[in-house]
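Why do we care about 3D structure at all? Because function follows from shape, and shape follows, mostly, from sequence. That is the central idea of this module. The next example makes it concrete: a single protein chain, its amino acid sequence, and then its structure expressed as tokens.
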Amino acid sequence: MSTRRTTYLTTAIPYVNGDPHVGFALECVQADVLARHRRLRGDDVRFLSGTDDNSLKNVEAARRAGIAVADFVRSRGDRFAALRDALQLSYDDFIRTSADPRHRPGVERLWQACAAAGDLYEREYEGLYCTGCEAFVTPEELVEGRCPEHGVEPERVAERNWFFRLSRHRDALLDVLDSGRLRVEPAARRNEALALVRGGLDDFSVSRPAARAQGWGIPVPGDASQVVYVWFDALANYVTALGYGSGDDLYGRWWLGADERVHVIGKGILRFHAVYWPAILRSAGEPLPTAVLVHDYLTLEGAKLSKSDGGGADPAALAAAYGAEALRWWFARDVPRVGDADFREEALAARADELADELGNLVSRVVALAARARAAGPAAPGGSAAGEKLLAGVARAGESVDAALARFDLPAAAAAVRGAVAAANRFVAERRPWEHARAAAAGDAAAAGALATDLAALLQACAAIAAEVSPFLPHAARRIERALDDLDPEAARQLFPKTRLAA
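And the structure:
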């Protein structure tokens, strides 16, 4: 009986009011590791990312730059799309909400479905609005009068908006979160989402005056004086990219029929994904996500990264300087499951050297020995207890990777891979195959047999490790596989060149 599963996996879509920074690159790589791992295990996976174009932040950034909004978001969006190659990402789709023809019809359909359910109504509203959050905030949420997320004082806004009856969905949201039907990882974020719902849910504004948005955005169906609020608009991308609203059968397969619908997001937008979005979908009569996987922030010298003020490191430049493998491995190894991580460039050099010293050195030694042994003539290896123990340990590492990634624990998964590499290196140190090689060259048949047995186990172990590391380091894994297939010592030596700290 087949256990093949279908998973739809998404990143959040970022505003394009500034250039990409390593914080968003972290999320891209985390989601990519999950997507590649599930494909490796034989699952069907669709992986989506994109850009959030229809925000007031983008309008204001374009105004400051003196550029038409459409030209601004297209140019900035190109830089986010370029991360696909720079970071070795495996998106199946990339949606731009201002330009993709699938998006507006889907947003309109979602709006109309919520309206038909009686969940949309108009009223006057006055409150504090944080443009950074693109949301109204309460005085209780502020710290010394400033938004704790963006450090700015919100502006007081009075306007007539459309509202969504979030309060109507409180009990249902509490049930799906408490039961785990909507899984939020890690547990601290699940508890945070539950606290938000238990504390009471106010209806929230889902439109903005078109005049304040300078006409940018999707008009509210039947009310051209308003544009759809960016968070209603942006969240819809997860279904509009599948053809919700435009008739594409991808929606049937990857949303209605998927075993898992998984969003990977940062902690700052938890309430939108674990509260607002499920309520909107429930109102529209559509299935909810099955999981929201939440990462904390990267900081730079203790400060939160920001696109708008230029306070973020350029991930494409970092990948070019240190290698995409170093950046991807740092994300996996050093960013904790819970808690912020401070980014430092010297850490990338350390991770590049770690890969060279541990995995690169292992493969290089094994390939060199195997190439010399093959040149000396064929041998018929048998099994050995030590070799079987090594291979069993590598298999257990794969099981540990599965368990860790299932709970969105990339550091534990990376540690399991490193453990397998360490076991193989210990095997080499203990078995000392180069000594068997010298004895075999002198005519010692027993040594030749021991060498063949050990190399057979090591080659199998290296191949299995290459497979397990492939979700983290896809291009490097392919290079390892080619070096093993060809028994090419020079290619093996070049797997992970040492990296010097960039000036």
